[in-house]
Amino acid sequence: MVSDNLDAIQAQEVNEQCLPYSGEPIEGLAIQGIMNPDSMEIDINKSFTLEAELLASAVARPDLNGVRLKGPASPAIYVVIDGYRRWIPDPATYNNLFLDWNGVIVVSNLPDIAEAEPLSSGAVLARPAGMAPVYLVSNGVKRHITAPSVMNKYYFDWSKVQSLPISVVNSIRTGPSISS
Fold this sequence. Notes:
2 domains, 25% strand
């Protein structure tokens, strides 16, 4: 009764404070909680578990594009791009790309999501000087972020987009666009 109400209030607080994660169940993820950006650990007072069917083996999950994830026992954080989790190698790279540390979802079945090449240390958001296209530049490849809604979905920080000379941007190999 009182305890049930407190649990409901705490779950609502988690959902309100951790945008862009909406708090809705995500099929195939065993969500254990939300990472506390201050301590970089699972906030036990605000953690919760959603029941979900665990997947039998690692598979691509394009439905998770833009989600930032971590396992419960590891500090490693991943972003899902093209359905694959990609390791963000260090805090400096994370800070180059994202608004803040809120909204990282802690999942117990992280290995069930197929893994691909990690982001390179120092990956950035860049655009040609005086032009509109924004790119994720990682591993020597630029990937066009096709729309403002995609930037927002990935929780990328508009204020961290670096303006580079057109010749520099043109010299970077082009990879597939990020469109969802």
